[in-house]
Amino acid sequence: MAALADLVRDLLGDDLPIAIQAYDGSRLGPADPPATIVVRSPAALRRIVTAPGELGFGRAYVAGDLDVEGDIYAALSLRDHLPNVRLTPRQWAAAVRVVGAGGLRPLPPPPEEAHLRGRRHSKERDAAAISHHYDVSNDFYRMVLGPSMTYSCAVWGDPSVGLERAQAAKYELICRKLGLRPGMRLLDVGCGWGGMVLHAAKHHGVSAVGVTLSTRQVEWAGKAVAEAGLGDRVEVRRQDYRDVDDGPYDAISSIGMFEHVGLAQLGVYFRRLFALLPPGGRLLNHGISRPPFERSRFARASFIDRYVFPDGELHEVGTVVSQVQKAGFEARHVESLREHYALTLRAWVRNLEAHWDDAVAEVGAARARVWRLYMAASALNFEANRTQVHHVLAVRPDGGRSGLPLRPAF
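Structure (tokenized):
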């Protein structure tokens, strides 16, 4: 274990903000740390050595070979060191001394890791990707998301307003941007558990259709629509956006689904939505994006691609606006909600940690660990401007008329 301590010091330095404790009782770091990374077995070292960076640490954490005690955000302060870790020959020799020569053979990854087949972003593979993430357990998502069952960035007037009010404010903001009025017809692409279509029908008098590829979401949303007494005005169906052909709709919202589309399909996506709108119809695209200096956080072989959003892709907002306009839309308004997503993710992590035992009982420790790790890391990414989220409001032109007021009160 002295070799392990030397290797950790060599890689991360002596001034660790947290503690690292090994399975034999050896320890590095401050005496009273905000968090402790616990190396529970030699298997953790094998995973880290054979997949240096975030994927190896993620696999070790999901498998339970490595644990985080205390403040997970403090533990993730080490994360910035990990993506660029490249062992020198001397460090490789030290690693071999720690894990043994046999330890350089990779362990099988935890079964929660996604392994999709088929052509990337084909309808069949997209359906499998969505099922991997969303068809986990509606009860689990209720523990994490709260009563609104809303899995996208909320809009916070103030951090003290609470998650439910912030999610309702997000839906109301989108309804205002779309100019919804009684009698209009709304399509919500990637509708999740039905939050947007329910809000728009209840508070703005529209008829709404929501589409999703998740079977579990359709089941939940159908019951929610019936309980709200809105079955005559709201329909939720399992359908790929590429197969929606019952336009025109007066307005289209797409909230937190865009990350699954893929760069190669952006033209198909925006042209399909354009075709479903009449002249003057509005589109609100709410999607996670990335700064131009950051690679996609959903890059292949990353932890988030393997365990969270397989085949997910993030795009720079300028690329999104260009694709919107190339499809025939006029881009009218762009708004960043980056800090709002950090607040939302921290609220979800608090919910998960508060219901930890029940969450583990529902979906297993490994999957609960996936969600805790990815949501906490994502919150830090939004706070550091490594990840962004934007509303892009666009209009299908009606001659030279946009239909928007000169100074929209968004």
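The chain has two domains: 2-102, 123-395. The first strand starts at residue 19 and ends at 21.
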